[in-house]
Amino acid sequence: MKLELLHQPDSAIAKFHMDPQEELLAEAGAMVAMSSHINVSTTLRKGKGGGVLGGLKRMVAGESLFISVFRSGSSPAEIYLAPKLMGDILPYQLSGTELVIQSTSYLASTPGVQVDLGFTGFKSLFSGESIFWLTANGSGLVMLNAFGSIYEIDVDGEYVVDTGHIVAFERTLDYSITKANKSWAGAFFGGEGFVCQFRGRGKVFCQTHNPGAFGRQVGGKLPPRA
Asked: Are 59 and 49 in contact (CB under 8 A)?
């Protein structure tokens, strides 16, 4: 399987060149275009955390209840995948290290990767963000998507990132959720809400825009539903 990333970073789209008898899993609704002979099926889950319970856990985390499975069949094929929001796509080669993914940042993966619901956080009183993270392990390619561009931070020691800007991070890092300001009043009036404090050594992948903050900014200007 070969991967091409087009139109980065503002409106990225992933083009996969599939060999015969290859398979690709993707978030439901991610497919933009594909070869006509590709076989498509829909499942609640594959692998760890499968079945109805696994699907319901994904729905609670803000993910689709379903996963789309694309199979190339006896001939080579190509397929285009794109995220729901305008932004970048990052391929991450998983091998041994577990990856923790913000639930809305998962786009696709190859069959050797198992994705399951990990930390099911809480709803921030100040930021309005629900913190749900998926865990990916196994071996293969994971496709991450972001709102805006993706940038990488190499943590060696301690680092703080706003929860709304996290795309994913390597599980070699320890982390804790805390408020950005030392006082609750400062957190409320400063508008920063909660942050993730990382400790150790590993990579954190961040997005330049915060989807929750963008939604609150734009939502108030939309006309009410009829």
From this structure: no
Q: How far is CA 216 from CA 129, 131, 221, in A?
A: 11, 16, 9
Domain 2-219 falls under CATH 3.60.160.10 = yes
Q: Tell me the pLDDT of the chain (226 aa) as tens digits.
A: 999 999 998 899 999 999 999 999 999 899 999 999 999 998 765 444 444 455 455 455 445 557 899 999 999 999 999 998 899 999 999 998 899 998 889 999 999 998 887 654 544 434 445 556 788 999 999 999 999 999 999 999 999 998 889 999 999 999 888 876 665 555 555 555 678 899 999 999 999 987 766 566 666 666 776 5
Predicted TM-score (pTM) of this structure? 0.80
Q: How far apart are CA 117 and CA 23, in angstroms?
A: 22
> What residue spans define the domains of the chain?
2-219
Locate 94 and state its tokens. 């998983």
**What DSSP element (H or E) covers 57?**
helix 51-60
Report the C-alpha gap between 180 and 194 in whole angstroms.
Answer: 6
**Within a 10 A sphere around the Cβ of 86, how many other Cβ atoms?**
15
What 3-state DSSP class applies to 29?
coil
Rounded distance, CA 76 to CA 126, Å?
50
